[in-house]
Amino acid sequence: MGDCSAGRRRVLFLSHYFPPECNAPAWRVFEVCRRWVRWGWDVTVVTCVPNSPQGRAYEDYRNRLWQWETVEGIRLLRLWTYLAANRGRVRRTLNYLSYMLSACLASGWLERPDVIVATSPHIFCGWAGAIVSLLKRRPLVLDIRDIWPESIGAVGAISSQAVLAALGVLERAMYVRAAHIVTVGEGYRQRLIARGVPAEKISIVTNGVDAEIFHPQPGGEEIRSRYGLGAAFVCIYAGTIGMACGLEVVLAAAEMLRLQGRQDIRFLLVGDGAERHALQQRCRSLGLDNVTFAGRQDRRDVPRFLAAADAVLVHLKRREAFRTVLPSKIFEAASMAKPIILGVEGCAAELVRAAGAGLCITPEDPQGLLDAIETLAGDPPGRQAMGQAGHDYVTRHFDRSALARAYLDIVSRLAGEDSTD
After folding, report:
1. Which long-range contacts (CB under 8 A, 24 or more apart) does 219-226 make?
2. Is the pLDDT score of 289 beyond 50?
3. Which of 9, 183, 206, 294 could form a Cys-Cys staple with 144, CB 3.0–4.6 A?
């Protein structure tokens, strides 16, 4: 690391989400930034009041114009935004646009950073970074974790081809403005190159796992007792219950089990999102007592839920756009030494197969899900071996600290300083 007596380097990180929100983007930014602070950098994160996914400010927070916090050395600026639940179109778009406007206005009052980083999943956060980069005359790193507008078109959040085309123009202009782009895998890299981004402008820093939090541990029995799971085979989904997840497959599989009179298999869905209430209502209408919704949980409690699992479901709808996605849920489940049932095709399936970490099924196929569950339920030594293989693989290749260091090397080069100690 450079000599801090000569002045610490400063990063301005724009992210719509940040803990205590429990989604993957929030915690990914936090885990990277806290390490950068530990390694001698000043990091300021510009975000919103925590409100996702319901669009209501969390307890002890108010949606003020401007409020500061310090979290593990990170200077955190929470700005006013128009709050909206993680569903619908008009109000959600207003939420995104208000973040972009607030971030751009607030930047005029902030210290000039050495580098600006702006992260997806939405394009307007990236454009906030592009505008702030122009105003501050500092290089921009775009952190692309979800390619808009392709991903929102894939789940039907926006169907208007004119709107999608307009967003595509903004997307390509944003890539031109960026000094560098960091993305999560080779599939995303190839899609960016196909959009005209020079290959040398793109670096890959994959999702990873914090082994300090996600590791084999006790606690599962308490969760099983709390939710009345008993000795059943428990398949857990833990994460955002949103439009892309396709968790209708769980209800279809659960209905098939009910018709068979099976009581030895249970599903536990942990998290919240745009589709949770609709799924719960459908469960009630079908009379399904083998699906339990645990609701939103503190991120640091998620390992205790995963400890209760016999298998962990990672699932997305069967869409071409999702073939390059590497869900962070894969790394968390594997790091907990839990076998994975993966309903995601493409890069994610290649990773799970290479690691020997679980079984891959066709997305949105309830019979395939049941077949995988029955295979694992009937082979305790096999699922233990898969869990151990996954743990060994992800801790060796996807350690969060090593990935954060690689990311900081990129940021440092743009700031004109080598980050190596």
Report:
1. 219/303, 219/304, 219/307, 219/308, 220/304, 220/307, 220/308, 220/309, 221/308, 222/304, 223/304, 223/305, 223/307, 223/308, 224/308
2. yes
3. 183
